[in-house]
């Protein structure tokens, strides 16, 4: 049986070159040595490893009711990508989650912080952002579920990218210690990094301030999204309400160098996202 392909984007810590990790082999946009490669693991192996968002903590039941995971149909209890429920029948995730596997090879999990206990949903349709390419400038995709989530609590979309951002929250079933995806949902707080500083820190890779956001700890303990967190939410408080500000896209090796994570900006692309939801036949997402 073929092993599933696991995808995440990171920047080589020495050359800062954007790479995609595919089934343990790095596909690099220029010829450089990679820091490490993603590892395919079984669900049983995943349960034996304390995996997490770097610097994060376990999420309590109900803490993030909109949180979803995208997994392979072959290994549905092991994370592949994250996602956010933005309507009862629509999940928003990263475009690069569909680089190597078709929707028929994937399922959506939702409803429990322990991935193996979450409900499974078949995927009816996927609309990847128009203009998406491996430079990740438009790294998002709309996933239409075959059936709606009962008693759903979708996360509203940030209506603009002009907010006075300060601190975000991230969540996911991503890896830790370069090993296995987490069997349980974890979360962390990360500070906003302005476009000028982010561009300077990523000067040898492509950061697009019109469609992307930066966040992450640059000093002290590393706090960042990791492989398999791709597609998960970057959340912020706006007028006392949590909104989806961004989508996990790419970043550095999350345990080696304190560099920012890069996220697709939801507010900057909200009209296109809503049009894609309509194209997929999903219910309109709420905005804030």
UniProtKB/TrEMBL annotation:
SMART domains: Tryp_SPc. GO terms for biological process: proteolysis. Residues 53-278 form the Peptidase S1 domain. One of its GO terms (molecular function) is serine-type endopeptidase activity. It is found in: Secreted. InterPro entries: Peptidase_S1_PA, Peptidase_S1_PA_chymotrypsin, Peptidase_S1A, Serine_Proteases_S1, Trypsin_dom, TRYPSIN_HIS. It holds the Pfam family Trypsin. Its main location: secreted. GO terms for cellular component: extracellular space. Keywords: Disulfide bond, Hydrolase, Protease, Secreted. This is Peptidase S1 and S6 chymotrypsin/Hap. It comes from Stackebrandtia nassauensis (strain DSM 44728 / CIP 108903 / NRRL B-16338 / NBRC 102104 / LLR-40K-21). The lineage of its organism: Bacteria, Bacillati, Actinomycetota, Actinomycetes, Glycomycetales.
């Amino acid at each position: 049986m073929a092993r599933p392909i696991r995808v995440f984007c990171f920047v080589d810590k020495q050359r800062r070159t954007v790479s995609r990790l595919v089934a343990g082999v790095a596909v690099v946009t220029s010829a450089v040595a990679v820091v490490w490669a993603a590892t395919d693991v079984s669900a049983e192996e995943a349960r034996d490893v304390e995996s997490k968002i770097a610097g994060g903590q376990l999420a309590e039941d109900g803490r993030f009711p909109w949180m979803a995971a995208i997994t392979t149909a072959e290994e549905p209890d092991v994370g592949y990508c994250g996602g956010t429920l933005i309507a009862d029948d629509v999940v928003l995730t990263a475009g690069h989650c569909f680089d190597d596997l078709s929707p028929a090879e994937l399922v959506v999990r939702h409803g429990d912080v322990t991935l193996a206990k979450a409900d499974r949903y078949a995927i009816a349709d996927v609309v990847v952002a128009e203009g998406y390419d491996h430079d990740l400038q438009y790294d998002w995709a709309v996933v239409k579920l075959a059936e709606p989530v009962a008693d759903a609590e979708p996360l509203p979309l940030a209506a603009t990218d002009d907010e006075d951002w300060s601190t975000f929250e991230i969540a996911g079933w991503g890896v830790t210690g370069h090993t296995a995806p987490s069997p349980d949902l974890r979360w962390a707080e990360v500070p906003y990094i302005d476009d000028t500083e982010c561009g300077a820190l990523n000067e040898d890779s492509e950061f697009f301030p019109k469609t992307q956001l930066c966040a992450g700890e640059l000093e002290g303990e590393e706090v960042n999204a990791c492989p398999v967190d791709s597609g998960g939410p970057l959340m912020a408080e706006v007028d006392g309400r949590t909104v989806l500000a961004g989508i996990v896209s790419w970043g550095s090796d999350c345990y080696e160098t304190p560099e920012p994570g890069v996220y697709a900006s939801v507010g900057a692309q909200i009209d296109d996202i809503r049009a894609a939801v309509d194209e997929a036949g999903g219910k309109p997402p709420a905005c804030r």
